[in-house]
Amino acid sequence: MKIDETTDNRRILVIDDNQDVHEGFRKILTPPKDSDLLNQARAALFGEAPSLPPQEHYELEFANQGQEGFGHVHIARQQGHPYAMAFVDMRMPPGWDGLETIEHLWYADPDIEIVICTAYSDHPWEDVSRRIGDTDKVLILMKPFNSIEVVQLAHSLTKKWNLTRSVKLQLENLASCKNQRTTELCEAKDRLQETIARRIADTMKDQPQDAVAAAFRQKEEFLAIMSHEILAPMNELVGKVSLMFDSPLNPGQREHATTIQRCAKDLLTLHNDMHEFLAGRRQETRSESRQ
């Protein structure tokens, strides 16, 4: 995804076969740049409340039919500039209706947020729910539209899209860090075990038993320091994953976080295996010293 990570995505697609509806969304969501200042000045001079609260300025695009909207979403996703949300009319004859359009939009871009624009007579909510499933990615905007509702939906859903993107990026970074740490720790564990075994064997062959014990104690001290260096990044990883579970994760993101948490536990198991190995070597050294 090529959307700039430092800026919010406020790209909105309106899919409706009525040009007057297009113009209505344009007036509500892309007012003149000086409209906020004009409303504030009117309120200050005449004591009037602004018709709309100060708002973000959105990047709007329009489609007349569901098939056309699907094409926009597919191309935007492929080019790395996806839409954050779409307002989709329920009835757009002679092409796809709103539900069929939504199904295609999610095929092209599973992350896009959807607002269904509908009248009471279009489709019962039970039909909508049965077609698109139990999802938090769809909201209903009843006709006739209320300007405040349109602004609030655009604000809330673009913020939600950007928050979800931020969480996803953090999970990807954690997963990458986890994979790197796992590889490094496995390699370090293998190297340590080989080095310890080789040096202990050489020491026991060339030195008196008292010297062997002293050398082994020095190695234990060294490995205790290494153990601390290994545990520090693991504890940091576990802590960050715990914070992720407090974020609004969707099922896929929660699955990724659970995988990271499980891998962190695997790292702790590797650490414990190393200590068990050392404990076994320590017991062998003591037994040989008594003999």
Report on the architecture of this protein.
The protein has helices at 19-29, 35-46, 66-78, 98-108, 125-132, 147-206, 209-244, 251-290; strands at 11-15, 59-63, 85-89, 113-118, 138-142. The relative contact order is 0.09. The longest helix has 60 residues, at 147-206. With 291 residues, it is an alpha/beta fold. Helix content is 66%, strand content 9%. The protein contains eight helices and five strands. The termini are far apart. Strand 3 (85-89), helix 4 (98-108) and strand 4 (113-118) form a beta-alpha-beta unit. It has two domains: 11-145, Rossmann fold (3-Layer(aba) Sandwich); 167-290, Methane Monooxygenase Hydroxylase, Chain G, domain 1, CATH 1.20.58. Helix 6 packs antiparallel against helix 7. The radius of gyration is 30 Å and the shape is elongated. A five-stranded parallel beta sheet has the order 2-1-3-4-5, with helices on both faces.
Structure keywords:
alpha/beta, Rossmann fold, 5-stranded parallel sheet, 291 residues, 8 helices, 9% strand, 5 strands, 2 domains, Methane Monooxygenase Hydroxylase, Chain G, domain 1
